[in-house]
């Protein structure tokens, strides 16, 4: 079974963070410049929350299209659903769908290991299906005929 640790290994180590007291305008700038949909909010070395484009859009909508001087703390999700490196991909899919979450922090105890996105999951599933498909095709090619053993 595919696990979160394997997805993180393929994905790489890049992680974008911010602090709760940063202005939302700074978060918006960082997200736009790096073409990312979320920031991990670190508070004194620990996971403080997540900020996604969803929270920013809600904030802008509630403030007549203005970001203002609001800090991240006031709009971030301060209790994001998280997973561990040993969580299976099927469980991540279930959580993402059930909680309507596009980004899940990966925690190994108190240590932040990374973030798994909906896109990361889709990529991992497609890669796993391609591998399984190629293995099945190889198996079928080597299928014995006329009662003969398959070639080894």
Notes on the structure:
- This protein is of the alpha+beta class.
- The chain has five helices and five strands; from the N terminus they run αβαββααββα.
- It has one domain: CBS-domain.
- Strand 1, helix 2 and strand 2 form a beta-alpha-beta unit.
- The mean pLDDT is 90.
Q: What is the topology?
A:
Layout: H1 4-11, E1 17-18, H2 24-34, E2 38-43, E3 46-52, H3 53-62, H4 89-99, E4 103-108, E5 111-117, H5 118-141
Parallel strand pairs: 1-2
Antiparallel strand pairs: 2-3, 4-5
Strand order of the largest sheet: 1-2-3
Number of helices: 5
State the name of the first-level CATH class: Alpha Beta
**Which radius of gyration do the C-alpha atoms yield?**
21 Å
Q: What is the number of strand segments?
A: 5
CATH superfamily: CBS-domain
The helix fraction, in percent, is 40-55%
CATH architecture: Roll
| N-to-C span | 27 Å
SSE series: HEHEEHHEEH
Shape label: elongated
Task: Estimate nothing, just give the exact number of structural domains.
Answer: 1
Structural class: alpha+beta
Low-confidence stretches: none
Characteristics:
single chain, 152 residues, CBS-domain, three-stranded mixed beta sheet, 5 helices, 5 strands, 18% strand
């Amino acid at each position: 079974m595919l696990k979160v640790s394997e997805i993180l290994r393929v994905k790489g180590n890049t992680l974008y963070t911010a602090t709760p007291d940063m202005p939302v305008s700074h978060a918006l700038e960082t997200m736009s410049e790096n073409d990312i949909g979320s920031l991990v909010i670190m508070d004194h070395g620990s996971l403080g929350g997540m900020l996604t484009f969803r929270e920013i859009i809600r904030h802008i909508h509630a403030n007549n299209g203005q970001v203002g001087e609001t800090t991240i703390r006031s709009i971030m999700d301060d209790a994001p659903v998280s997973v561990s490196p040993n969580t299976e991909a099927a469980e991540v899919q279930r959580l993402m769908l059930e909680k309507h979450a596009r980004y899940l922090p990966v925690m190994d105890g108190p240590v932040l290991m990374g973030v798994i996105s909906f896109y990361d999951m889709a990529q991992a599933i497609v890669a796993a299906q391609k591998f399984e498909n190629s293995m099945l095709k190889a198996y079928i090619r080597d299928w014995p005929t006329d009662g003969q053993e398959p070639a080894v």
